[in-house]
Amino acid sequence: MGNKGQVTIFIIIAILIVALVTGIFIYKNNTVSSNIPTSIEPVYTSFLSCLNDKTKVGIDILESQGGYIYLPDFEPGSTYSPFSSQLVFLGNPIPYWYYVSGNNIQKEQVPSKRVIEKQLGDFIDEKIRECNFDSYYENGFEINNGEPEAKVTINNQAVDVVLSMDMTIIKGEESVNIKEHKIEVKSNFGKLYDSALKVYNYEQSTLFLENYLVDILRNYAPVDGVEMTCSPKMWNADEVFSELQDAIEANTLALTTDKNTKNKENKYFVVDLPVDESVKFINSKNWPYSFEVNPSEESVMISKPVGNQPGLGILGFCYVPYHFVYNVKYPVLVQVYSGSEIFQFPVAVVLQGNKPRKSLDTSTFESPETGLCEYKNTIVSVKTYDSKLKPIDADISYECFNEFCTIGKTNSGILSGEFPQCVNGFILARADGFEDSKYQYSTTQGGVAEIILARLYDVEINLKLDGRDYNKDAIISFISDKSSKTVVYPSQKSVSLTEGQYEIMVEVYKNSSITLAGTKQEQCIDVPESGLGGILGMTEEKCFEIKIPAQIISNALGGGGREEYFMLESELSNSDVIEINAQSLATPKTIEELQNNYIIFEERELDINFR
């Protein structure tokens, strides 16, 4: 029993010796700093402080640039879609997490945590060489560093950095070599990123920003409606867009995640997001916007009345129905913040045909998007001229099946560029002072495309009625086979025109006081019989009473006419004013007289002069 006890003691001692040696080995490799001579310790402490500072700088950049230090390749926008792949905020470019490219392709740029850790590690590798040891060199220290390789782990409340780099510090007879350097930087970056990802996924799955935009559109812009009047309803599209921008900016800034809001009206703006941090939504009307509305002519939205055309006098009333379809795109910057730390990323908000865009599948990130414009492999030379065949510089793009590719700009009227292959696509040319030109061209093989752009001339409009200057309400239209321009006179008194054939139409409106009494009409239709008769195809007559409300026509057609006119470029270039003389019509007092005015209007001509 004594021998067995001695053996046991020796085994225990052996285990303790092995454990002690192993512990010393691990201790020397992971807590080397405890073995650093006192004279050298300030140098290494300074180095760790520098490593900590560089890591904090990298975290700040990641938070301010949507999780990126090194930005993805920049992709410019286009005239069709003004978004580039980045939003510039306070001079700082931030990659969109979701945007619509210049050729109308939806794209995502959401960095994964793995990508973020890799970028921060690369940043540390690059910046750690900038640590300044000049004061130590002056005091006789010798410091040599090897190649750095940082590994980063992002946690909810800290960022761990392990930097593998041989570092030798020598002072006199004392020296130390440290191979691995570890720090922990306190930061909420990991938790902020996770919350930002939840906000993004919530937007992609619910499109809550687009749904707010639908409400804004219907509250601040004409969308659908009917008004009882016999004169056209008109809106200035630029003014509608400006008011819509103001509303979007104000309503976006009003969004909040504060569920304790006491004001009932403000509860509409509370977004129930699946995050604990506060979230702010920012928009500015100075950021890129895309705004389209149809139907419209230039910057004028017009709805014309029904019931006053020749042959429709039997209706006995007039009304103006309107339905406008909008496409709107703009950016929103999302900021998720906790204390002094803010993580931000931008997204594009897209409304198509008055409805939110379709949701994207956000289950995967970093999946490459492919599109027509990524495969440009046909060389085409484009030459752009004015009507006198003088070279002009123009922006060139290519349209194929509603996708738009930016090609470049002609230099001295010539561009040799790569186009995507497409049959019966269109080369689009745009230059300041010229009307946009659209030229059909198949790019299945190379060649040369020559495009002539018509110069635009700004001319003042002087409207006369019966030979006298007229400064009251009128609508003046210039209709050609290429475009239509409408002027709401007298708030607008100028128009941009090119050489060509136009139908010029003037509609003058005067005050009237036609009162139409309310009426009742009975309308009968055949409907399927109920029961067996309906199955056998038998019908029965059912009648409905239609009530037409009384109305007062306060604005009625009181003059105007039509004229076919070919405008020469010499007339436009040598004249500042186009003078249009129209004839008046008798102010109608009854619906029959109003109908008669429309019949006479169709036969009235205009007198056109340039001066």
Average pLDDT, to the nearest integer?
84
Q: Rg from C-alpha positions?
A: 37 Å
How many distinct helices?
Answer: 10
Low-confidence spans:
18-32, 311-315, 362-370
Question: How many domains comprise the coordinates?
Answer: 5
Q: Biggest β-sheet: count, sense, barrel?
A: 5 strands, antiparallel
Task: Explain what the structure shows.
The model is unreliable at 18-32, 311-315 and 362-370 (pLDDT under 50). The longest helix is centred in the N-terminal third of the chain and has 29 residues, at 2-30. With 611 residues, this protein is α+β, with helices and mostly antiparallel strands. The chain is built from ten helices and 35 strands. Strand 1 (86-89) and strand 2 (92-95) form a beta hairpin. It has five domains: 7-36; 39-72 and 109-187, no CATH class; 190-356, no CATH class; 372-452, Sandwich (Immunoglobulin-like), CATH 2.60.40; 457-610, no CATH class. Strands 11, 12, 15, 16 and 17 form a five-stranded antiparallel beta sheet that branches. It is 23% helix and 40% strand. It starts with a helix and ends with a strand.
Write the layout of secondary structure elements.
Layout: H1 2-30, H2 41-64, E1 86-89, E2 92-95, E3 98-100, E4 106-108, H3 113-127, H4 134-138, E5 142-145, E6 149-154, E7 158-171, E8 174-186, H5 189-206, H6 208-220, E9 224-227, E10 233-236, H7 237-254, E11 278-282, E12 290-294, E13 300-303, E14 320-323, E15 325-338, E16 341-352, E17 355-356, E18 376-385, E19 395-400, E20 403-409, E21 414-420, E22 425-430, E23 437-441, E24 447-452, E25 457-465, E26 468-469, E27 474-479, E28 484-489, E29 494-497, E30 500-516, E31 519-528, H8 532-535, E32 539-548, E33 551-567, H9 569-574, E34 577-582, H10 591-601, E35 607-610
